[in-house]
Specification:
Layout lengths: L2 E4 L11 E4 L4 H9 L10 H4 L5 H4 L1 E4 L3 E5 L9 E5 L11 H22 L3 E5 L16 E6 L7 H5 L8 H15 L2
Antiparallel strand pairs: 1-2, 3-4, 4-5, 5-7, 6-7
Helix pairs in contact: 4-6
Length: about 180
Amino acid sequence: MAEVVDGAQMGGEPDGFDRLWTPHRMAYIENGKSRATYEGASDCPLCAKIDVADRDALVVHRGEHCYVVLNLYPYNPGHLMVCPYRHIGWYTDTTDAERDEMGVLTQTAMRVLQRVSGTQGFNIGMNQGAIGGAGISEHLHQHVVPRWMGDANFLPIIGQTKALPELLDDTWQKVSTAWSEENA
C-alpha cells in the first residue's frame, strides 16, 4: 500500500512536495541489479523479435534500419517502441541513418496512433542506461506512449494493477493495419 507523507510529519522542513512511497517498486530495482547483461541476438528480447513473424513478435512495422513494436508491458494501449535492428545501447552509437529513421518512424507512430485511437497527447522518450531507467539498457529503444485526458490513475500504485482496456493482439491489428495504410 502506498503512503503519502509530507516533510513536516517526519520532522523535516516542509518543501511543498508530498512523497508517494511505493515500496513494491524496490523488487523491480533490486531485480535490475542482478539481471545478466543481454549480449545480443542469443538472449536480448528486442533482438529476438527481429527473426519472428510480425504478429507473434508484436511488430507493427519494419523499416530499413529500425522496426516498431508494441510494448509487451504497455503504460497505455498502443504503447510503441522504435528500435534499431542493431544491438546498441546508446543513442550516441546510432548511425545517421538509424537516428534519422527513428525520427521518421516516431512521427509515423504518432500519426497512426492519433488516427486509430484519438490520442490527445504523447510521452516520447528514451531511458539511457540501467541507471537512467532503461529496462533493456543494452538495446536502444524509443518509447511512444499515447495519452488521453484522465488515462492515469493510482490503480498501479494502490492495487499493483494496470487497467488496459484493449488486448495486445487487438491493438496490434489496429496499429499494423493503419501503419500499412499510412505507407500506401
